[in-house]
Amino acid sequence: MAKGVSGGRARRRVAGRTAGAPLGRGGMAALAVAMLAAATASLAVGRYSIDVPLLAATLAHFPDAVAALVSGGELGSEELVVFKMRLPRILGAVLVGGALGMAGAAFQGMFRNPMVSPDLLGASAGAGFGAACAMLVAAPVLVITGTAFVGGLVAVFLTYLVSMAVGRGSSNITILVLAGVVISALFEACISITKYVADPYSQLPGITFFLMGGLSSVTWKDVGILFVPIAAGAAVLYGLRWRINILSLDDDDSRALGMDTQRVRAIVILFATLMTAVSVAVSGIVAWVGLVIPHFMRMLFGPDYRRLLPASFLSGAVYLLLMDDIARGMFPMELPIGILTALVGAPVFVALLLKFKGGWR
Q1: CA-CA distances (angstroms) from residue 182 to 15, 47, 97, 108, 116?
Q2: Which of 3, 55, 210, 268 has its CA 20 to 30 A from that of 134?
Q3: With b meaning 16 or more CB within 10 Å and e meaning fewer, what string describes 339-360?
């Protein structure tokens, strides 16, 4: 009887979280249009500027440019810039930004706090350490991706273990965030050791600039490496959208609805970390996207993860496209994109601390 009462209360809480939202399908369609518009505009941004008529004429040659890229043929200057340099970079920004936004939303729902993100749980630092170790031994790209994934997963697992040990089995979010800070600091120290032992002429510059975060070196091969794990992770997380809604309740309420919370939480951690790690392996550490984007999308679309997950993916893509445009178009030298996202994300995190004071609304 008590279980039935608890289950009914839990169902009412889920219904309350999923009923209504400031924006619905129209808002999602607007985000998709904004992503396409930002991606198209990004093709014209850079040191070699391309005006609208010339960009339209260049895009009209898309089939011929693809054939030339596949066969190794000659490309004109505009086709070379648009199709070989900027287009893979733009697709990389869409995939990385979307992955970090969606992974951040999943982590926030699973741990029931809008201050949680892959960065604060140590996933980014762990993935960065794994990638740096692989770069230290000149490993191929697939090995770099694999070690980044293992490093990110180990970091999140350690964060969770420390928080449970310190909190004596409770899910205190403040302890979880503090544990994430500690584990992130540990892996950042390991990254520093990696830099220290790296050759200062042949290895250190590459590792340093890579970890700052950037998309300047993204190629079509990198886009292929990004696409499969990010698409798989996004599909799994979206398939679990209703269960993530339930995870955002108390564990007692989740169990009252008959859900195996530990198994679902492990799956969410696995695939959210996979999306984060593969992003770090290609673009370096692009911090704070997983914190800023889901928070603002929750304000616009509500806490229902059926809408929040795709909205976070689309808005994360738009956000990183804009940050990349600023990084390569507004300064004499291209800035690492991780610097710009940190400049935006750190003040937002302070604002969240002041607003929520460690709690979930």
Answers
A1: 37, 40, 25, 19, 14
A2: 268
A3: ebbbeebeeebeebeeeeeeee
The answer to whether 242 touches 268, Cβ cutoff 8 Å, is no
Pairwise CA distance, residues 100 & 94, whole Å: 10
Nearest to residue 287, comparing CAs of 156, 158, 86, 103? 103
Give the residue carrying structure tokens 């995870």: 247
- Read off the pLDDT of residues 94-139 as tens digits, 9 standing for 90 and up: 999 999 999 999 988 887 777 778 887 888 999 999 999 999 998 8
Distance CA 105, CA 121 (A): 13
Q: Which amino acid is at 151?
A: G
